[in-house]
Amino acid sequence: MPSPNLQPFAFTSVSSSSTISSFNSFKRPTNAAPRPLRSPSPAPLPIELQPFQVRPVAYRILSKKHGLNLKSSGLDLLATYIGRKYGRDWRTKSEPFLDQIGRRWKEQDRGLFIDAQLLQLVIREVELRSSSFTGSVTETTVEVVEDTLESFCPQEFFHVWDAFAQPRWTYNRMRKHFEKASRPSLLPSAKHQVHTLSSRYYLLLHRLLRNEEFQPPSFHASNAANWHAITLIKNLLGRHGKSCLILGLLVKGSNGNWWAEDPSGRLELELDNAVAGEGYFVPGCMLLVDGVYTRTEKLQVKTVHHPPAEFRSTSREAYGYLDFMGIGGIGSTPDGRFDLAIERKMVAEEERKAETKIVALGGDLYLDDLRTLDALGKTFDVLEHKPPMAVILFGSFMSFPFYNSGTSSRYKDNFDQLAQLLSKYSGLCTSTTFIFVPGNNDPWGSTASAGGPMLWPQRCIPEIFTSQVRRVLKKAIWASNPSRLCYFSQEIVICRDDLASRLRRNNIRFKPSRSTTTDKMDTSEDTQADDMGPEADAQPLFPDETQSEENLETEKMVRTVLDQGHLSPWPSSLRPVISEYEHALSLTPLPHAIIICDPTASGYAHSYTGCHAMNPCRFLPSDKRRVTWIEYSTATRTSTTNSIPY
What we know:
Layout: H1 51-65, E1 69-70, H2 72-86, H3 90-107, E2 113-114, H4 116-134, H5 139-150, E3 158-162, E4 169-172, E5 177-180, H6 190-209, E6 243-252, E7 258-262, E8 265-270, E9 275-276, E10 286-293, E11 298-305, H7 312-318, H8 340-352, E12 357-361, H9 370-383, E13 390-394, H10 408-422, H11 426-431, E14 433-437, H12 446-449, H13 467-472, E15 476-478, E16 483-487, E17 490-496, H14 499-506, E18 537-538, H15 547-564, E19 593-597, E20 604-608, E21 611-615, E22 626-633, E23 638-645
Parallel strand pairs: 1-2, 8-11, 9-11, 12-13, 13-14, 14-15, 17-19, 19-21
Antiparallel strand pairs: 3-16, 4-5, 6-7, 6-10, 7-8, 10-11, 12-22, 16-17, 18-23, 20-21, 22-23
Helix pairs in contact: 1-2, 1-3, 2-4, 3-4, 5-8
């Protein structure tokens, strides 16, 4: 029942129907092979059409079918485009195209009148959608793409986006797409903090409604008997004793019990007999809760699940192939969308450069420990044989929290020692990009947090401490935590966080799910390592006798983060976040890969819904005298775990 004192953070309306009482028929996405591209068909000979010729067809489809009014400028544009695109067969072939124009115009809520300026953007979007399915690329486009890409080296398409410099997009829940937003202000307002929760909710809600299991059945549909309908909390009034399914934010109330909140209200949960699905269930998560609404105005919960993740390709299609990170560069259209012809060429370039590697060293590189410097030297000896494109070093770079008094000079001396060590490896210093990601003990946030969880995103290490390293390294990037690495068409999230320990501390205990042993995640681990020298050998990071148990825990961690679509699904009491930069923590759409350096968990490399998740764990494990790191191949989008004794 909606609480009388609660101010809902947003409002919406979701059509409800008869609800279900279990998730036995619930389908999660599976990794499917990409659809092969068909060969392009010959282009028709263009003709010149007059607006009066196109008017009857456009009126029948756009006006009578979709209820839109076509202006004279829009009609002139359609006549020119249809004649050039479809030639003599324009009467039959242009009808599906006009129908797509009408659908996209209404989906984006562009108004009742179609003018030439906005119509040109919609036509471009329809072209991108059709080319992604048919694979049709004109010869002129291919020639331009090839000439443009071949004139640049791979480093020209290698970028690391700081969390405070990433393009900012806000989600419009009414139009169901993203809009470019202005730069964040210095001090976020309370309204923006409320909008952050609202955006998270509607992103997950609309993602669910795109899933087959949540779409209303049509006549003779295969899912007519077991589709899922989401009910708003305010619509549960008067439905005592009936089953329902809600999507809500899990919070702990003032009475010590668990509550679910959505934009319409809040509802107390009875979790005594609840059965949980895969993943960790912590406060701050958006959860699918299935149960029976009782006369005491509580929900007697039967099952609890995370909203299923969505493949990157599906999300990109739903959002019109927006170029969120500017990955396309030269391949971005004027309206900020990705040119799919250039993207296909970028993927071909990635596969052609099979030797390109990204190395991620383990976390907690304590530079004030002589053992760390010795292990780094042996690691660089191996990497010097075949320098990778990038090496990622994760903090903390000091074994105790940084304070302003007494530790500044010592902290700088630690990086000076690292610079002296790096100067011995000329191949790495000149051809490899070093990326430094701070940890909990690094300045300046640790002066207030004392080594605990600090305000996210975390700014990069100040330049005053790293001057010697900058002189030695030709290419050094001091990144924020988290950051994003873009290489050609790929997007890789880089993050340093003690995720496993926080999930275990705050996890709610449920009855084990019956599908725990049957619903497994795809695991992608390579057992072969590159030939990097006589000392190097490749081996799994886990012992064989404990691999299954540890894999089960890592599957739960990866599922929790990717299903939530957010790097920090926590309340502000557990992980404070700068709401103005919350967009840097979003995982919508899912990246191609995510590197979560978590020293509190074992190393892993898993693929889930097309996203390859990796954890290089701790650089110097306390229980073994071996240094471990992960190599990510940009060509195959898989990783290998390597280790050497020290």
